[in-house]
Amino acid sequence: MKIVIENFSLQYQDGTESLRNINLEILPNAVTVLFGPAGGGKSSLLRCLNRLNDLADVQKMAGRILIDGQDIFEPKTDVTALRRKVGMVFARPVVLPMSIRQNLTYGLELAGERRPSKLDEAVKRSLQQAALWEEVHDRLDDPAIALSGGQQQRLCLARSLALQPEIILLDEPTSGLDPISTGKVEASLQELKKDYTIILVPHSVQQAARTADYAAFFLQGELVEYGDGKELFTSPKEKRTEDYITGRFG
Amino acid sequence: MEKDLSLGEFIITRLIKASGYSAIVFVTLIFYFLLREGLPTLGEVELGNLFSTRWYPIESYYGILPLISGSLIVTIGAAMVAIPFGVGTAIFIAEIAPRWAREILKPLVELLGGLPSVVLGFLGILVLAPNLRILLDLPTGLTALAGSLLLGAISIPTVVSVAEDALDSVPRSYRDAALALGATRWQTIWRVTLPAARSGVLTAIMLGVGRAIGETMTVMMVTGNAPVLATSLASLFSPVRTMTATIAAEMGEVASGSVHYHTLFFIGMVLFIISLIVNVTASSVVFRQKKRAERVLS
Hints:
The complex is a heterodimer of chains A (250) and B (298).
Chain A: E1 3-12, E2 17-26, E3 31-35, H1 42-49, E4 58-67, E5 70-71, H2 79-85, E6 86-89, H3 100-110, H4 116-129, H5 133-136, H6 149-162, E7 167-171, H7 179-192, E8 197-201, H8 205-211, E9 214-219, E10 222-228, H9 229-234, H10 239-245
Parallel strand pairs in A: 3-8, 3-9, 6-7, 7-8
Antiparallel strand pairs in A: 1-2, 1-4, 4-5, 9-10
Chain B: H1 2-38, H2 40-44, H3 47-50, E1 55-56, E2 61-62, H4 65-96, H5 99-113, H6 117-136, H7 144-168, H8 172-180, H9 185-196, H10 198-214, H11 217-222, H12 243-250, H13 259-297
Antiparallel strand pairs in B: 1-2
């Protein structure tokens, strides 16, 4: 077990209950998909895993999240180190206003890496992993903003990968992308899962079904069903899951 | 019906146009008036006298250099107080303070901005100057330093308020992205948020400096008003006289149309030009930054 979530609940300051008593065990080297209608708490859970929710208006939090057996909410947790270990890609690509190369080396430089050989190596490796190397290797010093939306999103993925995380969180990474770029991102996820633990919030049920090794269905803060991806999408045990994936609501 | 509408439109557009142009007209008129009253000085006072280091109008010494240097030293001192404290406070309010502290601090700072400068000058004479004199063992506390500290205090609310708005408008996704890359909170502020808000923060600084240059009442009250040329940093600890204070103090007693009168307007012109330079620099910097920011966000 890479990640163990035990009786986890989360409530925001405006009174909305985001997550209710979630129990979930996430396996390494697989794509785990968190899906369900909007407002179900998927993103909130994702943002708890690298403690990005620290800055949000969280009112109450209960339960535990263990990564490699370590409780990440313990006071002595090094949040910065945790975030390096748990990379994240957002729905809208946020490229930093600098060159492609600098975007990739930025996180490493923040972590104190200065050796050019290491940085160059990380640039090449991460771009290859994100299936972007072929398209940009001859213009690494161009401004990153000049890339297309799909390329920018893969650059953001590569930027996370450059830090060699163990877990990658993706929050609707393809919501703004065309089908071809989406296909490329999905294909690279299938490659990446050999080395990483991947948790994906997809932007559609179809994407969930395409990519999931394991799938968890969230509805209004509740984890309705969790299991093997193929099984869940072909013969769901819960009525509510079936209704959602067959399009009866949502 | 339609005719009424178009008439209303016509009147309103014209009114808006008129008020827009009036701003330009007023500035032009002010500038014209300044030139008309100030330029004769150049014919009446020799350039060597005008740009000498002695200001003593009764004896026909019209050297404005001490006044310019006085204004500059006080303004630079004020900027050195206002920029770190102002930007620091803005960062604290926008990025670090918990919500309840932010909700108290922001209105408080804005309230401070509304404090009449004469009140601050009063505090300066009664509290700041005597304490500075004792603390630094000076012959008098009414120095450029006292002026700088007070002007800094006056500029801080302007800097904080504008800079905080700029920092606040940096999209949250930037912060999230930096944090998710393993940046610490400080690295995020210093290397992502602050650069992203650069143009707004620069505007804040320029507005603050502009406020300091133009401020009259406080400096007149606390800087000692001795027109001595500031030659080194040591002048910070002696009395100086600024351009604004000179105009304010002497304009009331001068004979209209006299050489002294024209020279005071000439000082006003110099002040106007300095403010203009600060503003033009600020807006050109901001404009350039904006174009880059637009490219980034497109």
